[in-house]
User: Fold this.
Amino acid sequence: MSAKPKIALIGAGLIGRSWAHLFARAGHPVALYDTDAAALDRADHWLRAQGEQPGSVVLTDDLAAALAGAVHVQENGPERLEVKQAIYAAIAPHLAPGAVVASSTSALVPDVLFEGCAFRDRALVAHPTNPPHLLPAVELAASRWTAGEALAETRSLMQAAGQDPLVLKRVLPGFVVNRLQAALVNEALALVEQGVADPEDIDIAVRSGLGLRWAFIGPFETMDLNAAGGFGQYAQVFGGMFAALRQDMAARVPDPWAGDAPAEVAASRRATLPMGAHAARQAWRDAQVLRLRQLKDTPIPTFPKGSPQ
Amino acid sequence: MSAKPKIALIGAGLIGRSWAHLFARAGHPVALYDTDAAALDRADHWLRAQGEQPGSVVLTDDLAAALAGAVHVQENGPERLEVKQAIYAAIAPHLAPGAVVASSTSALVPDVLFEGCAFRDRALVAHPTNPPHLLPAVELAASRWTAGEALAETRSLMQAAGQDPLVLKRVLPGFVVNRLQAALVNEALALVEQGVADPEDIDIAVRSGLGLRWAFIGPFETMDLNAAGGFGQYAQVFGGMFAALRQDMAARVPDPWAGDAPAEVAASRRATLPMGAHAARQAWRDAQVLRLRQLKDTPIPTFPKGSPQ
Assistant:
């Protein structure tokens, strides 16, 4: 018998099965529910390929059984408001007392998503960086009805399972992760559009430059550590440059997705990586991320004790 | 006697000494020149702390001796046009035949920088990601006069020394690396300005999310691998979302550097990391980046042979 509480995942697609693996790995009893037998079958096959023992995740099409006794229910339905709201109506009668319901949505706003929902004081968004069993960042967004305890419990649960939750105080389109990604991706594509560098060379700037630090420290800490006087000094010296670049970027290209740049990037990618090697490269990427996480979880052996790690 | 050709570094500050360490580590004879005896002294001390043997880098205030026989001269002077042009005038008489002169400038445009320069067909920008001995990305930008061979030789030299050069076909303010960084940083600060998340939570989105992939693959490869059909399919599905976010970002905040957000970030950083631990955290960051580079240089042991690594 496990000391950890039960988790229920609604929807057995790419995200649901990844959550299932994550929580099972952390020692939780896990139920993975889907109405689609084929989806459950694929999830079962995938979970075994990840090394999950049979029975560590209970795959089921019985909603009441999946939800019975679960303290946290993670909903991974399609990104359509009416589908998700139908799911909430269906699960409401079967929820254990005090259960928290979190949605994996990347786009729907909690104040809209949970309006009219019977358990809206115990519901919130917990948007993973996909797939969550590899990438620990998870965005938590409460609605106007969410009780502070529900948010705090979800944060603790995620942290105990190895995730690194961040809390949105206010919801904007794309939340935080996708807005940051979009900012960089849009500029990368605008550089291609303007003939500044080849796509492969732009990738070098990240994977052999910016990304080596961002693997360990975020943008604010990066700037903070790049000035002897910390972020305040950095902002004084470089703030004007960043503000000027922001204006310059906005002015140059109306929409980098509308021109020839996307096709140029696609052609460059296929020249670098034929589609026949695409799946193998995905597996390589995931294996590298796992190695990086192990590295991050291991203190630097030669480092002085008491140093910040 | 080394089989590798001699490298001369002009300017012994943070960037010059890092280049010196990089090229010495790669087996080049290295001369590090500065007119400031104190700067040479600090560089000498730093190089020994990195494990350099005495004599592996010759520190000198004799310009002719520094340049004698050097095939590559890396200029790391202050970021002021007239200072750099005075340096070029001073070094011109002492350059070995066929030497390439590269500037570490992050902002000056090669067509302006090398105008009137006696060796402008052998001069270019080679802007490192600082410090270069830790971060391999280096941006190469030719002027209108730069011979193709000078660019090709610099690219080969950098690659042989362990760097990962990217070539700018056209120069925009900030080149590629700083434009990509600025895009993300400006949005991060705008999120603080709008009260979307605390600075520390925004850092989580990168160091526990986006940065884990960007440590290995750039933004285009990230998108390419995130769709079963590759980048072309990804652009069809998500291009509209990225374009919409770009408009949304431009419209919300005129200048995130002008309001209270920089002070809020500075306060958050000091709450997370007191200034007394700042230098130790810098050392931790550098040690982590070194570990990551070793990880990237080591093939995945359990991985099938013939897989893309």
Remarks:
- Chain B touches chain A through 117 residues (CB under 8 Å).
